[in-house]
Structure to design on (137 residues):
């Protein structure tokens, strides 16, 4: 006969199994190292994206714009790019090289807000025979 309420001494089914403290600490350390690696990759990706976001403005856009004109006049001009490239300024000098309509144009573009930024310089020759020409000596 069996008595109700009597518990067997060492029944494997009734024994509770749990994690030891060492197992919990090791699992926490593995999780922390994994999360640090993921965060490091994310921060590196964000840093790279910010570096790629910076636009380097050079003088080629000014040269392309000027090449659309049919007439040139000698002189010096300067300005900025407005909302297209805020913080950048430019200057150009148009010099007549020959009396047949050959002009040399020297461009310079720089960052007005960042003095450490490099200055972009370019010099091109344009043939514009319809331009007002002066007599060279």
């Amino acid at each position: 006969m069996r008595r109700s309420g009597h518990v067997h001494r060492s029944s494997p089914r009734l024994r509770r199994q749990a994690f030891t403290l060492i197992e919990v600490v090791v699992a926490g350390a593995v999780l922390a190292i994994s999360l640090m690696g993921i965060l490091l990759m994310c921060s590196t990706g964000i840093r790279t994206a910010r570096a790629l976001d910076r636009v380097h403005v050079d003088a080629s856009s000014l040269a392309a714009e000027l090449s659309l004109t049919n007439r040139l006049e000698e002189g010096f001009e300067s300005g900025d790019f407005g909302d297209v490239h805020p913080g950048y300024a430019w200057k150009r000098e148009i010099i007549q090289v020959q009396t047949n309509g050959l002009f040399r144009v020297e461009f310079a573009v720089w960052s007005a807000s960042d003095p450490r930024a490099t200055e972009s310089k370019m010099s091109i020759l344009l043939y514009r025979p319809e331009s007002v020409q002066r007599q060279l000596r």
